[in-house]
Amino acid sequence: MATIFSPSAILFSASPKPTPNPPPPKQAILQLPPKYTTISKSSSAIAHTAMTAAAAAAAVSVLISTPVFPSLAEEPSTSYRAYYGTAASAANYGGYGGNSNKKDSAEYVYEVPDGWKERLISKIAKGTNGTDSEFYNPKKKTEKEYLTFLSGFRQLAPRDTVLNNLALSDVDLQDLISTADSVRSEEKKDDKGQVYYVYEIEGTGGHSLISVTCAKNKLYAHFVNAPTPEWNRDKEILMHVHESFRTVGST
Is residue 193 left, alpha or beta, with left meaning phi > 0 and alpha meaning psi from -120 to 50? Predict the structure, then answer.
């Protein structure tokens, strides 16, 4: 019995066992972030960039289109004070200084910019060239206004004659006329019919405005002088001062 089953046992044991098939290899799966996440980040960056560009453009537009106005503190408005002059003769002149407080006895008036200083007129100056009052800009003393008068004139002579006579006693006026680029004159009347001669003398070195009239048997001449740089800078002020002159009281 043992012999009969031996080969079977060998045969059985020798039969090869079937080899199981190996499992198929697993495929690697690439994990991508959800599409909406990528789109969301891109949209946010684009939106942020667009908003930044729009804000920058708006800022530039405001800077370009918005006018820049100077500060009022940079260009303060000029104020003036009235000066009343009596045109007193040298014999009756009460020493040095003006008569700005004698409004009741004043014969003329003109305005002075605030900050300008009064030059004291001596009896000698009053007696030689008839200067009655003078004010000047302390920052530039040659920028000034002053008034002269002469007694014994009942009416105005022709305009050229008046200007030449004024220059006879004013060396600075002589020099300005001799080197002037232009000399203009005209006749004006105030609301009472009083005649004024108005002169404008323009040269390379300076500018002069003169107003002349007769009243109370006197000739009054009001001068506003300035070097060219000051004239260009203060023209509006100087024109205002020039136009403020007038005689007061009875003619």
Answer: left
User: Which among 236, 173, 197, 216 is positioned nearest to 85, based on CA atoms?
Assistant: 216
Query: Positive or negative, the Cα torsion across 237, 196, 198, 107?
Result: negative
Using an 8 Å Cβ cutoff, are 240 and 184 in contact? Answer: no
User: β-strand 195-203 against 140-151: which pairing, if any?
Assistant: unpaired
SS3 190: coil
The answer for residues whose C-beta is within 8 angstroms of residue 157's C-beta and 6 or more apart is 165
Q: Report the predicted TM-score, pTM, of the whole model to 2 decimal places.
A: 0.67
Q: Which residues of 199-211 are buried (b: 16+ CB within 10 A; e: fewer)?
A: bbbbbeebbbbbb
**113-126 as b/e: b if 16+ CB within 10 A:** beebeebebeeeeb
- Identify the three-state secondary structure at position 108: strand
DSSP assignment of 132-181 equals EEEEEETTEEEEEEEEEEEES-SS---HHHHHHHHHHT-HHHHHHHHTEE
Distance of alpha carbon 234 from alpha carbon 238, whole angstroms: 6
CB atoms within 10 A of CB 93: 17
Q: Which residues contact 132 (CB under 8 A, 6 or more apart)?
A: 85, 86, 87, 88, 121, 126, 147, 148, 149
The rounded distance, in Å, linking the Cα atoms of 99 and 88 is 9
- Tell me which residue of 231, 229, 213 sits closest to 108, measured CA to CA: 213
Summarize pLDDT for 139-187 with one digit per residue, the tens: 999 999 999 999 999 999 999 999 999 999 888 899 999 999 999 999 9
